[in-house]
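Students often ask why inverse folding is considered easier than folding. One informal answer: many sequences map to the same fold, so there is more than one right answer. In these notes we will look at a single instance of the problem. The structure comes first.
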């Protein structure tokens, strides 16, 4: 499949998943978010990680507040994304309460200011685990991002700089899980995808 064909297929699938997400009620998003985050907290990979990257969620994404709180309650190091131009880095977050003091991006996501000189994960020991957002996932780990390649590039940088790949866990609502997703050689595969079955508690 050519790059142009993959690009077009991804564009169509993004449009379809966004429709599914917009049809989800706030109650369903809250219920599934809680169940998915509880699944993550119970994984051995999470329990054994001390340096963890977590995204700060948009309303259309699995809410990660429960994960953030648990990281700080268990006295581990938390890193969150900062997007500047085409680059993303992972900067240290000192407390859950600090989130409410961060500047808001045009995407309505809190992140550290461009001139905030914070600890960057790759410069101080790397990451054990990255909790990865996505627009769509397959059960076996393929991921559809939003088209900017931020996470794919950052994960590659992790491998190049620390010579190991962090464990990658994708979080998705039931309506974001697909039988297949068009991918290219630069698309990183998740080690695990956590989601809810529709209309169930599993």
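Output (designed amino acids):
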């Amino acid at each position: 499949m050519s790059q142009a064909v993959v690009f077009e297929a991804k564009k169509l699938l993004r449009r379809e998943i966004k429709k599914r997400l917009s049809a989800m009620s706030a109650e369903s998003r809250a219920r599934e978010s809680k169940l998915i985050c509880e699944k993550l907290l119970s994984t051995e990979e999470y329990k054994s990680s001390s340096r963890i990257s977590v995204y700060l969620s948009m309303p259309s994404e699995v809410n990660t507040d429960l994960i953030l709180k648990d990281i700080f309650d268990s006295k581990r190091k938390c890193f969150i994304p900062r997007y500047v131009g085409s680059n993303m880095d992972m900067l240290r977050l000192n407390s859950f309460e600090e989130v409410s003091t961060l500047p808001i991006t045009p995407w309505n996501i809190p992140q550290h200011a461009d001139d905030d000189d914070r600890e960057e994960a790759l410069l101080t020991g790397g990451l054990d685990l990255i909790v990865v957002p996505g627009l769509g996932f397959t059960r076996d780990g393929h991921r559809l991002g939003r088209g900017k390649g931020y996470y794919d590039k950052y994960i590659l940088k992790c491998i190049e700089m620390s010579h190991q790949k962090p464990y990658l866990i994708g979080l998705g609502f039931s309506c974001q899980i697909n039988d297949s997703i068009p991918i290219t050689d630069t698309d990183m595969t998740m080690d695990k995808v956590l989601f809810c079955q529709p209309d169930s508690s599993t």
